[in-house]
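Subject: sequence -> structure tokens, single chain

Hey, anyone have a minute? Need the predicted structure for the following. Not urgent.
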Amino acid sequence: MNRLNILLLGLVAIFLISCKTEPDSEAVKKEVLNIHDKLMIDGEKVIKNKMKLDTILLSDQIKQAPDSALQKQKVSHLISDLNAADEKMMDWMHFFKDDFKGKTEQDKLNYYKAEMVKIRAVEDSYIKATRASDSLIKVYQYK
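Reply:
Had a minute. Here:
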């Protein structure tokens, strides 16, 4: 009976060791790059929204609004938010490195986890800026 318990305990230990709960660096890297690829597509919307807001800013519709100065300020602020989101993306891409010669698997994993946090922050800024600008563009019924 004692040997059976030891054998079962050994099998459980082997099973637990083989069940890796933390992803490897390649899996995290792939997820980071997938988010990057999605944001590159979303970047087109950021640019289009900036162009639409620029047009709205120069339009007679905003110039004739009762609170024209406030509306212009709101549009300008959204343009700044879109520019800031775009700059965050450019900065992230500029500083992203993929050379790990002589580094351990744990070094790679730690780097990609840190990059995941950064690219998620870029994603958040894209989402906030595009949602806010979409709402204002809709208010001005710009197509």
